[in-house]
Input
Amino acid sequence: DAGITQSPRYKITETGRQVTLMCHQTWSHSYMFWYRQDLGHGLRLIYYSAAADITDKGEVPDGYVVSRSKTENFPLTLESATRSQTSVYFCASRVGGTAGELFFGEGSRLTVL
Amino acid sequence: AQSVTQLDSHVSVSEGTPVLLRCNYSSSYSPSLFWYVQHPNKGLQLLLKYTSAATLVKGINGFEAEFKKSETSFHLTKPSAHMSDAAEYFCVVSAQTSYDKVIFGPGTSLSVIP
Output
């Protein structure tokens, strides 16, 4: 199916473990984004990518790593998960510049115990 | 620098009455402005966007918003609320520059009372 898909949708892990959240889009959009959503903070940008092999930090990048070897995939890795990283994570894509619409996945709910 | 303020964290209306969700922004550049809606346990969906064309923008599901540069506002309205409108609404600003920063407001939760 066309669109943007995230996996897993739900994940429970323990402090210190590595976790990877996957994001896949079928449109070949240039830009991809990772946001986290927390009560009282709205959506905050973690990392974004303008194209394959081009990534940059957003507002809250500490503790996260991204890669983009292929246009359609943009995985987010928590190298050593902490409780403060318990959140809902959203991946999004956009065709081009800042006037364009963001297309969101359905989110990945991560709980770090 | 850019910022977005959503003046109400929660709005409650009766079904069939008008909806007003307020948004003020700050931007050093000519902004693009958006409203997104998020239903429970779902991703965000675009309602409407302003990108320097008409100042009154019509969106999906009967929503519209007016860009007022003098007031730096982009309030979202709907003449008659429906139960299905109950959701979280986000006002978003992005600068029309090469920098890819998109700023989300904190959100307004809309409740619709039968």
Observations:
- The mean pLDDT of chain A is 92.
- Chain A touches chain B at residues 31, 33, 35, 40-45, 48, 50, 56, 58, 90, 92, 97-99, 101-102, 104-107 (CB under 8 Å).
